[in-house]
């Protein structure tokens, strides 16, 4: 078998020298993503205090203070991501197509992306704090007697996640919705479908893949909540999220194996949620989509 | 008024009846959201110009001293220079590495393609902390963290996949016949890239470059985990100064947050001139004006 014919047979399957263009990207991802991950995984099985390879995992799941970070993170991230996606759909549905001021409105909704967590945190502390404008206003109109506690607890972090997550979810959903051919809905309308049926039977199935992707990306954003959980939250109590636990293990106790353990646990939980969402989506509708939603 | 407006066909009155309350609810919610947002931003702005502000609607008097303090006290000039250095390096490297990868993934099919694709999807789907901590551990071990190169390397992890995923649809839109014609005329892969693809892809490259720029300037976790004292970027400096409460006046932190927002706003408004954000994931089929 000569060298030339081997090259021919490979080329028939799509393997030739042009695939070398993949090399820089692959090397980078392997060296900076896969290798550290595998290294961290290995590290997590080498506890500093000895006690068997699973000691770190036993330590994490055995200690309620550490274990509860999982529940606290999910309790913040799931509702925030759900709300962001659910609120984006009707807003984006009304805003698709062309109209005057669309560019202005999109720009206004994009502004929160420029704020950054620190400004959002400072703003929430000022605005929704005990003597902030919100509480002053609610007291002035007589709705409440005592200031509501909206910051330095669960709600502060939740609001921060909505402010940073909603614009992102909205832009993605708007983009998926605009990718759906409007003539499909017009066809449904001409067959007598009302607005609710048009949405339920035509737009929604076509949007489902985009919804799943948007939920996943928004969930990743919310799940990795870190600075705002410290700044507007209650980082030793109700909003001690899993990334705080990982950070403390690495940079306050310098226990890198334990920090890697927490990072791995965090990754596994996050991928499990995404897996469930994508599985549910695959059960829903698996035809072609209007946009590149797959 | 019995005249029918051109956008509404007579068959539509039912739609108005059903849609109206829902529409009001939606616009009301959007309005409240925007109002709260305005309140959040305005309270930071007001505080950054306020002299003393305790239990009143507005501060007692106004001043710009917090901005002066933030500029000198935080060494803001150096921090902004570092931020731009990191961002530019990340943009250039991720475009140079990402575009060829996107090209192969958009044009070719080969064994293991799905695996390669998954490999580029994972860094985007994982929270930065999960790979940031092991990555920082490795980088510290080989002496690359705590300085500029560590910050740049760490930021490349999500940015290269981001360029790959945003460029793939742009490349798919280019007719392969153009490339084939160039190859027939004797152009090699390199000249196909520089003479044919690069000019056609310029809008896409610009779009993803600007987005990577915005992303990198705003990226907190990865920079926070790998930065040393001389490689702090704007977000990390902000977080540190706010977290170390009591050392700096809160108004001074607010002033810095306003500066950060202005930097991001300039970047984003520039980005929006090049990219229609809604066209990133799909080709928009907009309803023709009727």
Pick out the low-confidence regions of chain A.
Answer: 289-294
Give the CA-based shape of chain B: globular
Total beta strand runs of chain B: 0
Secondary structure class of chain A reads mainly alpha
The main pleated sheet of chain A reads as: none
Low-confidence spans of chain B: pLDDT under 50, at least 5 residues? Answer: 1-18, 281-290
What percent of the residues of chain A sit in helical stretches (DSSP H or I)?
Answer: over 70%
Number of strands of chain A: 0
Structural class of chain B: mainly alpha
User: DSSP strand (E) fraction of chain B?
Assistant: under 5%
For the largest beta-sheet of chain B, the strand count, sense and barrel status come to:
none
SSE sequence of chain B, one letter per element: HHHHHHHHHHH
Using only CA atoms, what is the Rg of chain A? 24 Å
SSE string of chain A, helix = H, strand = E? HHHHHHHHHHHH
**Mean pLDDT over the residues of chain A:** 84
- Annotated CATH architecture of the largest domain in chain B: Orthogonal Bundle
End-to-end separation of chain A in angstroms reads: 42 Å
Domain ABC transmembrane type-1 (chain B): 80-271
Protein name (chain B): Spermidine/putrescine transport system permease protein
Subcellular location (chain B): Cell inner membrane; Cell membrane
Keywords (chain B): Cell inner membrane, Cell membrane, Membrane, Transmembrane, Transmembrane helix, Transport
